[in-house]
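Risk register update: the risk of archive-format incompatibility is retired. Evidence:
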Amino acid sequence: MLLLLSGIISLLARAGGAGKLPVLGGYRPVNVLGASMEPAIKMGSVIIIKKIEVKEIKVGDVITYKPPKVIGKKQDPTLTTHRVVKIIKKSGILNFKTKGDANKTADISLVSEGQLVGKVALAIPYMGKIGFFARTPLGLWLIVILPGVLIIVLEMISIITHARGIKNAKKA
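Archived output:
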């Protein structure tokens, strides 16, 4: 059952780019595709992002953000998750200097308020790998279809056993 649940969460995390991520109670799952946050967040993990107010971000928080918009180009759907190393207030607007834990230097661009997707609330190591596997034919069968069929069969057996118990109780 846990494997089925983890497969579903991981599949949801692969739902698409920044504008297509499923949100449940202000939280959204995202697959980690790179190693820039290792060892804190391993490549192949699923992170749960919580939408929070920009003013709540502190130095040391791990945030997920959209890349800056480039005029005349389509918005890149790739999200980046890095640690805040400095908060800079320019003209009353908060900007964040970020850095991947595994990177030697901080990111060149500042992250603006409008780019912020949320703060990492939870990282589940290796769960993203389950989602990648679940997208293969064998993975779909082993992680989604087979457990689903097994649950249905077990429930049918339970219903039949219960019905027989009621029938036998009426005979007695």
